[in-house]
Amino acid sequence: MDALINPNVAYLLLVAGFFFAILALMAPGTGLLEAGALITLILAGWVISFLPINVWALLILLLGVLPFMLAVRRSQRLIYLVIAILTLIVGSVFLFQGEGLLPAVNPVLAIVVSTFTGVFMWIATTKILEASRIRPEHDLGKLMGAVGEAKTNIHNGGSVQVAGELWTARSAQQIPVGSTVRVVGRDGFILDVELVEQTQNSSGEILP
After folding, report:
1. What digits encode the pLDDT tens for the residues 182-203?
2. Mean pLDDT across the chain, nearest whole number?
3. Rounded to two decimals, what is the model's pTM?
4. Distance CA 105, CA 2 (A)
5. I need a labelling partner for 87 at 20 to 30 A (CA). Which of 14, 61, 128, 139 fits?
6. What domains sit in the chain, N to C, each tagged with a CATH number?
7. CA angle 132, 138, 142 (to 5 degrees)
8. Closest listed residue to residue 51, CA positions, set 117, 96, 88, 13
9. Residue 84: closest CA among 120, 137, 108
10. What distance, in Å, lies between the first and last C-alpha atoms of the chain?
11. pLDDT at residue 108 tops 90
């Protein structure tokens, strides 16, 4: 029990809990990350309840969010990231009250963890923002009415080739593989298709 109620242990649990929570936000739905974040944060909160906190150090940690946001918005200005990491280190080292002016959290531990966390969060956040700014490669609206070919039997599911690419498709009726289909709707990246009846002209050519 005494080994668990330790500023270094509380600090690691707190960082791990927030780390799991951030990963859960980036990849929702797994359940494991959410459970890990909840359990770790509860355990961290229990340990922290036995330790006195320096309010000023907590404020420094919160103020560190501002330069971090600037680092994300202006990815070329790494000075903001350096400032954010420095505030994270100082706030982490003095988060818990030690003996006199001595830090309660091991400075080396705080430097390593804060640097890794700050850099990881900066890379992950900037990549997410960059991905959100990228315009879709395909204008999905232009697929409406497009004609393609059924690559598998289609009913509740299947695959079609439309606009030179393979898409997941479904149909209200059974469509055999190799049939010509037309896109009549879309649900996300799933195409609703219908069978295109084909006829022959006087020359014997097949017409849609």
Report:
1. 999 888 778 899 998 764 344 4
2. 82
3. 0.56
4. 16
5. 128
6. 7-133 (no CATH), 140-207 (2.40.50.140)
7. 130
8. 96
9. 120
10. 77
11. yes
**In sequence order, what are the beta bridge partners of 170?**
192
Q: Residue 127 in 3-state DSSP?
A: helix
Cα gap 20→32, rounded to integer Å: 9
Which residue type does 109 have?
Answer: L
Q: Which residues contact 75 (CB under 8 A, 6 or more apart)?
A: 126
User: DSSP labels for 50-117?
Assistant: TS-B-HHHHHHHHHTHHHHHHHHHSTT-HHHHHHHHHHHHHHHHTSB--STTS-SS-HHHHHHHHHHH
| pLDDT over 60 at 128, yes or no | yes
How many beta carbons lie within 10 A of that of residue 164, not counting itself?
6
Say if CB 198 and CB 206 are below 8 A apart: yes
- pLDDT band at residue 206 under the 50/70/90 scheme: very low
Copy the structure tokens of residue 190.
């799933």
Nearest alpha carbon to residue 171 among 144, 196, 191: 191
Q: How far apart are CA 8 and CA 101, in angstroms?
A: 17
Task: Look at residue 28 in the predicted model and tell me its pLDDT.
Answer: 64
Using alpha carbons, select from 13, 6, 3 the residue that is nearest to residue 50: 6
CA angle 143, 128, 112 (to 5 degrees): 160
Render pLDDT for 29-85 as a digit per residue (tens, 0 to 9). 667 888 888 898 898 888 888 888 889 988 998 888 888 888 877 766 788 889 989
